[in-house]
Model the fold of this input.
Amino acid sequence: MAIEASTQQTRQPRIRLGMVGGGAGAFIGAVHRIAARIDDKYELIAGALSSTPEKAMASGADLGLAPDRTYSSYREMAIREAKLKNGIEAVSIVTPNHVHYDAAKEFLRRGIHVICDKPLTSNLADAKKLKKVADESGALFILTHNYTGYPMIRQAREMIANGELGDIRLVQAEYPQDWLTEAVEQQGAKQAVWRTDPAQSGAGGSTGDIGTHAYNLGCFVSGLELDSLAADLDSFVEGRRLDDNAHVMLRYKAKGSEKPAKGMLWCSQVAPGHENGLKVRVYGTKGGIEWVQADPNYLWYTPFGEAKRLITRNGAGSGPAAARVSRIPSGHPEGYLEAFATIYTEAAHAINAHKAGKAVDKAVVYPTVDDGVKGVAFVEACVASSKRNGAWVKV
Done:
């Protein structure tokens, strides 16, 4: 990454990493492991990869973990690793949502840094309790809203913070998919089963799984904080217990003397033709920007009254915020895995600074437990609003 000086004389030792969840058949666990390896900041040395002992041991063996560093429970792993001289320094939690709170708590209380998949927890009460544990532990908490790691998202954020769009008026975010168009959870599809189960996923379906990403990205890019929302949630597939589509109107808090911005968010998992159609658009008094994940190395910028301009990653017009998280020259595409890796590398910078007793470089940016609480609050507000026929709800 560009933040790494080529003249650096010594490199930091790899951070000793553990993982909870992510065993055989788990999609996101493999993504986290790749992301942790891309910039060579971590070494996976321990895991509680499944709640089934046999599967946990088999998954550990597949990943080359030593048998005595492969655990059948995250609590056993937290207790033993905290006592080892070469125990893990950080843990990745990549389980279904309902496990996040208890698992993270075990490691935070023992001073082990936590890198946790989103949403933070399956309910707001647990999210608030987890924030308290994290704040009191002294350990770092990183939430993997990985889309914030894209260079051109950092570019858009920098431009807006510098006032290039003027006062922000509108924030539009959407994340449509089509993979739950049919009731695949009733056919035993693993990824669908837990995501459509309120006991494991929480109160939100599409709102919790992908709506939180769109919401977080809109806030991250615009620098705005949500005030209230009005939501219309649907479960279009017969028998589905959680929402698979949501239309949400947003009202943001005013910044200084500016008039409060408004926004709209659409998330859907029943939109045929869409795979991972994440898009964010922000409009202000001086111009607008548009970013689409399908073309992540491009950012469209339109100053009001002027021709639309294309800014490319590491190309002309691209600034330092994008450059510091870019790995390769312009024209060679960087994508999803690299953006995910950026979150892991930002976390590594923070962990190494913490270990050295130094302040974290101000350029280092990653989602925190506070962002996680806001995400869960967003989901529960959407559910509450929809139950009241789209009434406005404070977040």
Observations:
- The longest helix spans residues 336-356.
